[in-house]
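Task card 7
Instruction: Convert sequence to structure tokens.
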Amino acid sequence: MQRGETRAIIPAALASALVMLVAVPGRTRRAWTLIAINAGVGAAVSPLIDVFDAGSGGRTLDASVVNHAASSLVLVALVAGAVYGVLSWAASWAASWAASRVASAAPRSRPWLS
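Output:
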């Protein structure tokens, strides 16, 4: 397969991302999810392209190239997932902290003044 044969992947990925952001509730969280996924794929793209290049022209793949790509992909996935998880937890904590601050600052009812 030539790289030119995979051109439909980009419009399909963009269309599915657009549908996911427009049609599904929770746009902000989903946008950050897409950013984390794309950052992870972007970090691992070089070893993945090496696999593609090593196998082009009907050549046999060297196991070291495949192992390097697989280990890079797993490492990047773990790091991206951990960063996303920590940021998601921090955002949730900040939202609950802000809600508690607003609730505590709200004027309390004083029935004896009515």
